[in-house]
Amino acid sequence: MKNSIISAFEKKKFDNEPNLPTFRSGDTIKVHYKIKEGSSDKFRVQAFEGVVIRYKKGGVESSFTVRKIGANGVGVERVFPVYSPNIDKIEVLASGIVRRSRLFYLRNLSGKAARIKSRYIPRGK
C-alpha cells in the first residue's frame, strides 16, 4: 500500500525526464552545477570534471558519482542526484570501455594505472 502511494507520487511529480545526455560508468563527463553565493540569492555555475564511477538508477533517488583527481593529487568524489535542480548541464567528453558498472577499484589506483580506454564514437552518422 505504502509503496504504491510513493510510486504514484513520484510518477505525478517527476513525469518529465531530466534533460541529461546518455552516459554510463567509465565515461568522462563535465557537470555544470549551481552554487549559492553566500547569504544572497545569487548563484554561480561551477564545473566538476571526472570519470563516472557509479550510476544508481531508482526513480527519484537516481544519482551518479563522479571522481576526479584534485590539484594536490588527492581523489575527490561527488554524488549528484539526477533530478537535482542545481545541475545546469552535463557534457560527455569521452566514453570509456569498462567491463563493470561500479568502478570503485579506481580509488586504489594512481597515475597511468587509473586510465580508462576511450571508445571511438563516429561523428555525423
Automatic annotation (TrEMBL):
The keyword Nucleotide-binding does not apply. One of its GO terms (cellular component) is cytosolic large ribosomal subunit. NCBIfam families: rplS_bact (TIGR01024). Transmembrane segments: none annotated. Belongs to the bacterial ribosomal protein bL19 family. GO terms for molecular function: structural constituent of ribosome. The keyword Ribosomal protein applies. This is Large ribosomal subunit protein bL19. GO terms for biological process: translation. It comes from Pseudobacteriovorax antillogorgiicola. This protein is located at the 30S-50S ribosomal subunit interface and may play a role in the structure and function of the aminoacyl-tRNA binding site. Keywords: Ribonucleoprotein, Ribosomal protein.
